[in-house]
Amino acid sequence: MSKRYSPKARSDATTGVPDRTGLLFIVSAPSGAGKSTLCRAVRQRFPDLLYSISYTTRPPRRGEQNRVDYYFIAKDEFEKGIDRGQWAEWAEVHGNYYGTSADLLDRGLAGGKDILLDIDVQGMRQILQRYPAGITIFIMPPSLATLQRRLEARGTDSPEVIAVRLKNAQREMTQKDRYRHVIINDRLADATAELIGILEKYRS
Predict the structure, then answer these.
(1) C-alpha distance across the termini of the chain, in Å
(2) pLDDT tens by residue, 156-170
(3) How would you label 151-184 residue by residue, b for 16+ Cβ within 10 Å and e otherwise?
(4) Which of 59, 201, 54 is nearest to 127 (CA)?
(5) What is the pLDDT of residue 188?
(6) What pLDDT is recorded for position 20?
(7) What Rg value do the Cα atoms of the chain yield, rounded?
(8) Integer Cα distance of 165 and 170 in angstroms
């Protein structure tokens, strides 16, 4: 049986060397399935958890803040990062780039920090090539009809964009069996408790 470590004990008191490598929690979901809301609840429950903020070239949505929701950068800057090997994973989605900083993940995990990563299915596959011990969690909507209502209620996308997101969601949902854990977000309180319970199990 592998040794379990307390998340409160991050380093040896005399040497300052981390007593374990950090855990990487990878959460994916179709757009509109409630992933961002669930991840915010997890971060409130575990304030010591390092959250990897993604970089994107898309414009901010209403209420989004730079360096809080995403790092919003120019397309040419992102492409330079591709050339430099700056991204642990990256993808072009709906005409915009999204990526995760490799340096942040490497430094955090080596320093014994547990990290929460909010990425899509394509990004998950790339991340596992580099971090095969990553703990993968997929958030499912109860149905495509429910997902459509949520996307429409959000009021940020045109009907054409919503149609594309629903088509992508169908494709992403077929990949759920690639994930170690699957949560159906029907009732938010139940899904939140389930996600927190998964993290507690691995961190205890």
Answers:
(1) 15
(2) 889 999 999 899 999
(3) beeeeebeeeebeebbebbeebbeebeebebebb
(4) 54
(5) 95
(6) 85
(7) 17
(8) 9
Give yes or no for residue 36 having a pLDDT over 80: yes
Distance between CA 54 and CA 43 in Å, rounded?
15
Q: Which residues pair with 11 in a beta bridge?
A: 18
Query: 10 Å Cβ neighbour count for 32?
Result: 23
Reported as a single tens digit per residue, the pLDDT across 37-52 is 999 999 999 999 999 9
Tokens of 204: 């205890």
Count CA atoms closer than 13 A to 200's CA, side-chain side.
8
The 10s digit of each residue's pLDDT in 3-12 is 332 334 444 4
User: For the chain, which domains are there?
Assistant: 24-203 (3.40.50.300)
pTM of the model: 0.83
